[in-house]
């Protein structure tokens, strides 16, 4: 079914979607402009073959990474995260089954705990936290300068870093579990990081205007998908080569690396904002 949908999407791109021309505009809509801004002619049509045109359509969003290094760092953070996360839960269930003799019922309970905690956490971040922050912003003791100053850590950025660090720590803690009851609270802690991709993508897309935002979503989603493809190759290979807790430690290190990359991307963005404000 997934391959069928993918094939239909490729056919749609080939038949209906034209490759981008200069400045990210469709080739057929480009017009050559004179020095005074008047239209002097129509740009020549693309002569690329079907395969080259298809590849240009598929990978055109990735040009944003070349144009903006800080966005490339955010995309790399999401790729690295999904490389560690996409296979992590499967590795957890294999680990609990082999090391702690978990039954299918107990592993099913782990999945239920993870989904429930993740849902509650997202609701808390989306509704409760903004409400509390708005209450503090109305305090009269707050100075005019602090109210007009830019936010040090945007909500999506802070939530993303917190989620990644929490999940990385939870995976490390899980390797020390010796009893079944110790696994359940650790999985609850681990589940706080499942929403991290949403926070990363939201923060990354906010750096673009409405015209480039769709391309930014496409580009960073491609990085996420690539990480999901690499995950079983990377962590699965580790689990086969070194059975036991090593795969969980590798996933923890991978997600921790993603947290560092996200922090670097955020700092690069804040540095750019300061430079723009100085100018």
Proportion of residues in β-strands: under 5%
| Fraction of helical residues | over 70%
Radius of gyration over all CA atoms, rounded:
23 Å
If you average the pLDDT, what whole number results?
77
Largest sheet: 2 strands, antiparallel
Please sum up the structure shown.
The chain has helices spanning 2-16, 50-59, 63-67, 69-85, 88-100, 104-137, 144-148, 155-174, 180-191, 196-205, 213-241, 246-278, and strands spanning 31-33, 39-42. The chain is mostly helical and 279 residues long.
Blueprint (SSEs and pairs):
Blueprint: H1 2-16, E1 31-33, E2 39-42, H2 50-59, H3 63-67, H4 69-85, H5 88-100, H6 104-137, H7 144-148, H8 155-174, H9 180-191, H10 196-205, H11 213-241, H12 246-278
Antiparallel strand pairs: 1-2
If you had to describe this structure to a student in words, what would you say it looks like?
This protein has 279 residues and is mostly helical. The protein has helices spanning 2-16, 50-59, 63-67, 69-85, 88-100, 104-137, 144-148, 155-174, 180-191, 196-205, 213-241, 246-278; strands spanning 31-33, 39-42. Strands 1-2 form a two-stranded antiparallel sheet.
